[in-house]
Design goal:
- The protein is built from two helices and no strands.
- It is mainly α and 57 residues long.
Length: 57
């Protein structure tokens, strides 16, 4: 759970200056959903790469 908060915070901080606070919030939500989908896809198809993503985040 904390890794998702880290992804959301990083995405929001990087995009808030460009898109404003609301745009940054939307960008962060899309980034978290994309991260979760990518992590699940990699765990199913490429288990070693999926575990590497989990340990990196």
């Amino acid at each position: 759970m904390l890794e998702l908060l880290g992804v959301a915070w990083s995405a929001w901080k990087l995009s808030a200056k460009r898109f404003g606070p609301v745009g940054g919030l939307l960008f962060a939500a899309v980034a978290v959903v994309g991260f979760v989908l990518l992590r699940d896809y990699l765990n199913e198809r490429y288990p070693k790469l999926g575990s590497a993503v989990e340990t990196a985040a």
